[in-house]
Design brief:
The chain has 194 residues and is an alpha/beta fold. The protein has one domain: Rossmann fold. The protein is 35% helix and 21% strand. Strands 1, 2, 3, 4, 5 and 6 form a six-stranded mixed sheet that branches. Helix 1 links the parallel strand 1 and strand 2.
């Protein structure tokens, strides 16, 4: 592999209502790994943004489209998604799946195709998920895993890896030192570093 990174620009999307929550801690460690490998990282806190649900108007799918018809904060996010070669999506599990904030973002990415020929192709994705419970199955984390896997496989993006673990109180995941190391290693892999 050459010295050039596969992903020089990384966009982190935090889907928790807690800015310092457990999934944000995992994303922070992925960020550390990516930055240590030379990538530029930008973080977006989805909960603080006005992101409306997709209205199924299909404006974004028309031949002469100018993009998504909904004028909200996704208009700010779309160009950043296109510019970055890699994304980190972090979400806790709420009621057996990703948060509503994360799902709103995912649904609205349907319009991303209006901004170029398959802008998903070749994107490198890292997923960070935290949950309360003894494992990913009884917590519902597997439901979120499946949505991410199916979605990004369908659009031609590559999930480079996932980090996940059990934690309930904000910041509790910090005690899982092995998981934090895994997250940093994932950040390096995400940008193509050895």
């Amino acid at each position: 592999m050459s010295d050039k990174l596969k992903a020089e620009n990384v966009l982190v999307l935090l889907g928790s209502p807690r800015k310092k929550g457990n999934s944000a801690v995992l994303a922070e460690h992925i960020t550390r790994g990516a930055e240590s490998a030379g990538a530029k990282v930008e973080t977006i806190y989805l909960n603080g943004m006005k992101i409306l649900p997709c209205q199924s108007c299909y404006t974004c799918q028309k031949a002469d489209t100018k993009g998504c018809a909904i004028n909200d904060d996704m208009q700010f996010i779309f160009p950043k998604l296109i510019k970055s070669e890699a994304w980190v999506i972090a979400s806790p599990v709420y009621w057996f799946n990703m948060t509503a904030q994360t799902k709103l973002f995912m649904d609205r990415c349907f319009a991303l195709s209006a901004y170029g020929k398959n802008p998903f192709a070749g994107k490198r994705i890292a997923i960070a998920i935290t949950y309360e419970g003894s494992d990913p199955f009884n917590s519902g984390a597997v439901n979120a895993f499946r949505i991410f896997q199916d979605t990004y496989n369908y659009v031609g993006s590559k999930i480079v890896g996932m980090v996940y673990g059990s934690a309930y109180k904000a910041g509790e995941i910090k005690s899982n030192k092995d998981l934090l190391k895994q997250a940093e290693r994932l950040g390096k892999r995400l940008v193509g570093a050895k």
